[in-house]
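Q: Hi! First time doing this. I have a protein sequence and I read that you can turn it into a structure. Is that right? Here it is:
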Amino acid sequence: MRVIVHTGKGGVGKTSISAATALRCAELGLKTIVVSTDTAHSLGDALDVEVGPEPMQIAENLWAQEIDTRYSMQKYWGRIQEYLGAFFNREGIAKVNAAEVTIIPGLEEGAQLLWISEYFQAGEYDVLIVDAAPTAETIRLLSLPDVTRWWVERLMRIARGLDSVIRPVQRFFNRGKKNDLGIDIAENAWDQVQLLFDTLDGVRDLLTNPEHASIRLVTNAERMVIRETQRTYTYLNLYDYATDAILVNRVFPDEIRDPFFDTWKQRQAKNIEFVGEAFGSLPLLKAPLFGEEMGGLEMLRRLADELYGERNPAERLFDGVVHKLERLDNDEASWLLRVPIGFARKEELDLFRSRDEITLSVGPYRRNIVLPDELQELEITSAKFEDKFLNIHFEQRAS
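A: Yes, that's right. Below is the predicted 3D structure, encoded as structure tokens:
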């Protein structure tokens, strides 16, 4: 199964592009499901149908789902949360407070990831399209296993170390309370939690494997939106997620001749050129601003035509490396940024660094790379051209 995740700044048109991509895949004969992980669901509006928390068929080869966080939490975490809540309640914590304690940071988002695992393991679909939340939420979601594991391990350590309290709670749950496998949840709580994290780790392995998954960044031809897209791309590199395309949405078409739009069109043209500078050899796909509201299968079909032409969206669109960020020796204050330069000569290279950005010139061409927070306070200690890569080392400033 191929997994394609669309993310970008809120309002750039991720949902329409996700729906159009899914429709194109389905019409190419691929059994396709499109899911929305954005709490502000609009996938049903884009498809012009009612979409619920479980998959429903929209057209031939096409299913859709708007993942409901509360529903997913109960499906994947409800029994374990009930167990922990009962434990803390017996410790004298009020029932309402106990429920709050067992709401693990990030786990609501994690329940969305578990759907991806379920579909991948079941193997029912050829393609899974994810209409992801705006970029900040998506980055938090994709870094979830590490963050949530820290919290849960400490929470479970508290509970696990007090056997004298756990045993009466187990007896309470043993009164007929079974999980889906027929096992007493109290006796099996720890295994359930471990299974949960094994599954989350598996989702991460899946999404970081470019043979199976691609991240596609949706943007508009506006400088501020492009800058956020750059930051998102850099952060995705931090977590080893493979981006295989940049999708620029709502470009003014050439047939607009009204002089009122001339300035806008010129600005968009410059910004699209800037996208090329910012993302190098990543494929750039463009979709026009339509004169009609986007919604319904016919409009989505038109959007897919403009965006992909004769391409199959399920195919991997790029398998190279635009730039790669690596932590050296697990040291928070030592990083290596690797930028492929190809056959450029050393004398053609020019590097300029501001606090949060690097501008790299190779002859007449430029690349702008926005630095993540981890690097903004570090110094460049060396920049070496090695094996067709420019290797830029960042270290802590000397005190």
